[in-house]
Amino acid sequence: MDSSIEDAGALPGHAGGTVPAAGAAEPAPDVAVAAGEPVVPGGGAAGPAGRRVAVAPSSLSPSRAGDFMQCPLLYRFRVIDRLPEKPSEAATRGTLVHAVLERLFDAPAAERTAPRAKALIPGQWDRLRESRPEIGELFAEDPEGERLARWLGEAERLVERWFTLEDPARLEPAERELFVEAELESGLRLRGIIDRVDVAPTGEVRIVDYKTGKAPRPEYAEGALFQMKFYALVVWRLKGVVPRRLQLVYLGSGDVLTYDPVPADLERVERKLLALWEAIRQATETGEWRARPTKLCGWCDHRSHCPEFGGTPPPYPLPVRSAAAGE
Predict the structure, then answer these.
(1) How far, in Å, CA of 87 to CA of 76, rounded?
(2) Which helix (H) or strand (E) holds 189?
């Protein structure tokens, strides 16, 4: 999820895009920067005198697709306005655990043990803090280090639980933290980072994603599989091969959710994404991004800008086309 990709050619015929730097979060994949324009920290491109220049979305990732389905205004705040968000303990712990599980596969199979994995945590935590200094805010008010110790202990328990679900000594991933990108016939670009890709000697592909939370209830399983079907669609469009299995490994609850996709599944996902992208395109052109209040609003960093909570969004930074004018 948040680390480097090694052996990028391991997946037969790999044609993914650029490889994110170690410790980097999922690249901001859904905005384009005009060629030759310098990037401004926090997104966008630098205009005259360093002024940020907003650009329209140009691609879609599972995270941002999920944002739009959850709340179009949240999508705008993250992709168009690029408003800053505070780091969270849960998300940062997930990033740390992902980094540890990725790095463990650097060791020979016989040395991929739980003690070795736990021993990787301090070093990966140091690397994460170096690459993302804002994470230091998480434990700024913890002078004795008690909260940090508990937090690291929780990361250790998640790593240990993984060994009850999979045996890394018997796994040789073809890819880890694989950045993939495909352009559909419509011109829509899909992109994202796959935690792990396993390729059997027969050529069958398994896509694996680690989740540090708990498995969803059965009625919410379809939503959880959306991200995996998104990745399967990208791999299918890139290689012409439908992955044999999609596997979600929930370290928080010790569950493993699997699904074997067929082309009809992925065609439905593609139609859904095209409809979603059309809605995003229309919102981008009209500037109409509606809030969709849910119980998740309590965790949103942008309530001060949200009309549902008495806030005012920033001035819309893109040109607006009038639908009434028939443009």
Answers:
(1) 19
(2) strand 189-199
